Amino acid sequence: MIVINEAKARKLIVHFHAKESIISPDYLECDSLISVPLAHVLLSRIIEAPGEFIFNHQVSLALNPVRMLMKAYFEGQKNLQELSEAIMKVLSSSEKNISEGQVYVVDFDQVVLDGIECKALGIFKIDRKQPFIESDVSLRGMKMTLNEGVGKRDFNKGALILLPSDQEEMVLKVFQNHPDIKYWKNEFLDIRPLENEFYQTKNTLDLYKDFALKGPTALGKIDQMDLLNRTVDYFGNNNEYNQAEFEDEVLASSEIKQAFQVYKEDFEKKHGMAEISDQFAISKPAFKAAKKYIRSVIKLDRNFHVYVHGQRQEIERGYDEVRGKNFYKLYFDEES
Q1: Phi, psi (degrees; rounded to nearest 5) at 227
Q2: By the 8 A CB rule, do 310 and 229 touch?
Q3: Which residue stretches of 75-168 are H helix?
Q4: pTM of the full predicted structure?
Q5: CA distance to 150, 181, 194, 227, 305, per residue, from 178 (Å)
Q6: Cβ contacts of residue 15 below 8 Å, gap of 6+?
Q7: pLDDT per residue as tens, the chain (336 positions)
């Protein structure tokens, strides 16, 4: 968990990325009036982003360009000006069609990760500013001007790079406003997920969702929805995941358990992920984020959606020979 209650922006530099980029000649030391508000404007959105990441490289971690630059900066071998200019070169070389915009590079103080204070640096890309009205009232009358500025929701991509005081390797929080953008995580930063409780919880829920909807062909729609609901209930009601316990409580039958083991191996290979652990602490933030995309809905032609939240025994599927159509029968106590 990242805490920014006392966070301050210490130093800041802003460049402009374009075909002919504009490089600022020096960084700004943030004074006490702006350091706290600036930190909260820039950090409040990125710490809400799901998951944590670490640097990656196909050949050797030591060859990751951004990691090399950050290591040199955190060890005092580069100042913010030198670091930011080098980062702009890496950014420009990572993708040909990056949209024009400002790039903020900011050194933060008093950012805490899991109770440990960190060295912290943020890289933020802002493609457009938002207009705002500034008014000034005096004895001479009222003056209004239209300006442009940056708010909490205005940056398009961000990376917060943390080096906890008790660790040697850096941890990243990463944000991008469009999930289909590849260059920010893959080419520019070159990162992979940190395989912690968040990672395990998210991947396991993705696996069970995929299995429920595409796995055992013998399952009808009602049973699929029931499996999804029981999966959500298990992760919502427990603090620890235990695969054997889960299989007994949720998968139940031996046929479905066997089908799941085969599906699990194929799923891990297909998505290039490490083997999902048999036991781990359930991350409630990961559960909350994944739950948004689990919908127990049976879609019937273009006419009806049946939302199944539980009580498998209160819904039945049948076939009406007179009409020549399938039907669902729902049992309930009250109508609202």
Answers
A1: -65, -40
A2: yes
A3: 80-94
A4: 0.72
A5: 19, 6, 21, 31, 29
A6: 21, 22, 23, 24, 84, 85, 88, 102, 103, 105
A7: 899 999 999 999 999 999 889 999 999 999 988 999 999 999 988 998 888 899 999 899 999 999 999 999 999 999 999 999 999 999 999 988 888 999 999 999 999 998 899 999 999 998 877 777 877 877 777 887 877 777 767 778 999 999 998 888 999 999 988 877 889 999 999 999 888 888 889 889 999 988 888 876 667 888 888 888 889 999 999 999 999 999 888 887 888 888 888 888 888 888 777 778 889 999 888 898 888 888 888 888 887 888 888 777 888 888 888 889 889 888 888 887
331: Cα separation from own chain's centroid: 39
| Domain ranges (residues) in the chain | 2-194, 198-330
Tell me the two tokens of residue 50: 């799901």
The H or E element spanning position 113 is strand 101-113
Q: Exposed (0-12), middle (13-18) or buried (19+): which is 271, by Cβ within 10 Å? A: exposed
SS3 for 133-181, per residue? Answer: EEEEEECCEEEEEEEEECCCCCCCEEEEEEEECCCCCCEEEEEECCCCC
Question: What gap in Å lies between CA 42 and CA 55, rounded to an integer?
Answer: 22
Interatomic CA distance for residues 206 and 212, integer angstroms: 10
Place of tokens 């460049």: 15
Degrees, nearest 5: CA angle 33-125-145: 55
The residues, ordered by sequence, that sit 6+ positions from 112 with a Cβ below 8 Å of its Cβ are: 2, 3, 4, 6, 118
